[in-house]
Amino acid sequence: MTATWIAVLATAAGCYALKLAGLTVPQRVLADPRVRRFAELVPVALLAALSAVQTVTNGQVFGLDPARLAGLGAAVVALVLRAPFLAVIVVAAATAAILRATGIS
What we know:
Elements: H1 3-23, H2 27-30, H3 33-56, E1 57-58, E2 61-62, H4 66-80, H5 85-101
Antiparallel strand pairs: 1-2
C-alpha cells in the first residue's frame, strides 16, 4: 500500500471519528449558547476561507484569474439578491465559463 492510500484511509477514518464525536456530544453541551453560536459560524468561516483560497490561487502560486473573480462577484450578487444556493452556483459557473469561452482568463 502506498503512502498516498495510507493518507487517504487515515483521513477517512479521522473524518468518520469526527462525525461520530459530533453525534455523541451530550445535549447539555449543545444547549450552551456559546457552543451553539460557534457551531453556526464555523461552517460559514470555513466556506469563506475555502472560496477565497480557491479564487486567488492556482495550484501552489498566487494568481488572480479574472474569470474566477468575476464568477465570485456574480455569486455575491446572486446571494445579495437572495437567490437559492443552486442558482448561485450556476450563476458563478456560467459567468466564469462565458468569460473563459470569450478568451478572458
